[in-house]
Amino acid sequence: MAQQVVMPKQGNSVESCIIVEWKVKPGDKVAVGDVLCSAETDKSTIDVESTAEGVVLALLFEEGAEVPVMVPIAVVGEAGEKVEASAAEVPKQQIEEQVHVSVAAVVESPVAAAGQATGASPRARHLSDSLGIPLSAVQPTGPKGRIIERDVLSAKGQPLSPVAKKQALEQGIQAPASGSGIGGRVLASDLAAKAGEPAAVVEPVAEEVTEIAVKGVRKVTARRMMESMHSTCQLSLHAFADARALKRLRAGFKASKPELGLQGITINDLVLFAVSRTLVQFPAFNAHFLGDKILRFSHVHLGVATDTAKGLLVPVLRSSEQLSLKQLSEGTKELIGKCKAGTAQPDELTGSTFTVSNVGSFGIEAFTPVLNVPEVAILGVGTIVLKPIEDEDGDVAFVEHIGLSLTMDHQAVDGADAARFLKALMDNIASIDLLLAM
Amino acid sequence: MDSFDLIVVGSGPGGYVAAERAGALGKKVLIIEKEHLGGVCTNRGCIPTKSLLNSAKLYTHAQDGKQFGVQAQGVSFSLLDAMAWKEETIKTLRSGIEFLMKSNKVQTVFGEARFLDAHHVQVGETVYEGSYLIIATGSSPFVPPIPGSKLSHVLTSDGILEIKEIPASLVVIGGGVIGIEFASFFSMIGTKVTVIEMMSEILPMMDGEFAKLMRRELKGVDFHLGCKVEEITPEAVLYTDAKGEKKSIAASLVLMSVGRRPNIQGLEKLGLDIGRQGVVVNDRMQTNLATVYAIGDVNGRSLLAHSASRMAEVAVSNIFGSKSMRMRYQAIPWAVYGNPESAGCGITEAEAAKLGIPVRSQTVQMRANGRFLAEHGKKGAGLVKVICHAQTGAIVGVHLLGPYSSEMIWGASALIEAELRVQDVKEIVFPHPSVSELIKDACFQLDHTL
After folding, report:
1. What Rg do the C-alpha atoms of chain B give, in angstroms?
2. pLDDT band for position A86 (cuts 50, 70, 90)
């Protein structure tokens, strides 16, 4: 029977601990008393010991996560035993997903509450004081942009003289890694030299640097983008699809009677419609790549990359292949509206199987969208441009074309597959009126 | 042609240390010396004067021992024996350096070096080739063109170490370190000594308050400050005093100690950049020629033996080592080994004012110290001054006048090098009883907080 190991209570004042390093990995055998991880409290670093015997089935938090005391951090049980979702997934999802949408949908949780104290942990602050490293010079890696002890340690160079230390802290100067004193020790004059370096090159300008903590949507985006680049093998294909049918339809909808409710259907809605239908023909692209397996989905849950004041959000249009153009258009508008208003719910922001990102309104012709992992592909939609096309008589005419950029994970599919999918999409867009009739 | 990784010209405390360090790194090194290993320091400077001063101090203490319960009759001073002791010391140290050269496989050649180009030096008929060249040719006493300066009784610090008889009277022209040490020595052994100094105070690197006390404590030495020597005759030294009046002092011996000049003869062929002070070097001791380095007095940056030795290490490090070393000048200590001794490190208040550094200072009397009182009594003279930055509290200068000064001052170098503040020094435990405790006392007076 799987048992949870919780973050132990550390006295009365400690509300949460930061997991500094996991000492075990799933599959490791542990006995009661074995160290599972080291964790940083406000005052010290502690070893968290296992309270159960068996095999580590799941680690519920990543290193650097701030975990309230008495919250489960790991599951220990028998080898091969299934971890119940209630035991393993809930806390992790709370952290991951709530952070993702926290700016929009304010969902309270014990983790979010404990993490409110952004800035630096007291331990990091003490170390900053004793080493003379201003916190402003430290790159935070703790949860919600919090500076923890290891962040200060990683900024450490040669020791600072007492005078240099005081000046560095008072004036927020990051000392050079080594200075001109004994054995490379950093002296006050080295700080002055460092501070004066730019002035030696250019006229001193009153420079205002605004520091913005990386947190919330930005932080989630940053992490997910890096994950994407680190975990996939991305290849982008660019093409242009004949956009005359798109334009014609859009003009027709715009001129249609208001009571039909079609006036709001945009070019992007038409492209999403074409994508939803094309993906049904190409299930390999309506899929997740999970390393050891690929999940193909029977429904197209279309992610629509959305630019909001808080950053990039990707609401999900569920079973889009079953929606009529009108339903699809209305559904998309509603989701985008919720994202911009900050009222999108977590389940509206997860579970996409393919994503479309449209930057055509900025005049971008083509780009290389970054995969929304674990999805296998993402489509970038560009602007409409005129392309010279030679007709059967040898006459050249300028024809409107829409830019399409498909990034795919070469781990899951091959270039020729992607080319076939993109070609089909081009054809479907070029004859979108026919597609609508089907 | 014999070729070497490094050729060092001059074997003073700069040259021999450079050769030793490079040899220890396994480099093929040649050192060229025109006279004796050890240079001025060992043969005609630091060491022989310390030997003579120690003899004179023993003589003085033997005469002054009554209050301490020591009575001695028939105490006399033998200059010949003192000189013999001095020679013995020099020879021992020279052979020590010879051993150092051998044990580090440094080849030694005696003779005058002729610089052919940046990689070739000739001695006699032999030309030696070196990948790198360290110039450590030192400096020589400067004799200004004063009428009579070439008379036989006018000596420099070189000649005065060879005299056979105690002079009845001595006029020392120049109140720098060399002049003051000889003035102290001769006054202790019964010579009537007069110091004529052109500036308004002796020992320019010394705190003004300390220099004044130093003059008072150099009993038996007359000082004429702000005076200009016009002529030296076989009987007297003629000078113009601060008021512009012409005066004269009878002198059976005259010591010319107005300064030293870098030995740069023959270097011009190399195309070296030579400034007013000497060969121009950067803080790695590198000249304008990439493979030629100049260390010690010849670059004129700091005319002290220990500076030369440090420059040697910096140069060798930049040639063969980590290349990260730079010469730092802000914490080089100096010492004057007269009776009393004095030493200092860092800046004086006058220098701080000139540099625009806001400072605070604290002076304490040595007689407030247990060990000093036990050994010198209530009337003993001695001062300790600690100067710190007014805002940061960093120690920027330490000045000492009194016994053990020369042995204590390295501590001040460490404090300044480490940029320790008054409040930091207060955390250091000093041995008791020792005169060094006064440094901590001064710090406590600068900052009463705990």
Report:
1. 23
2. low
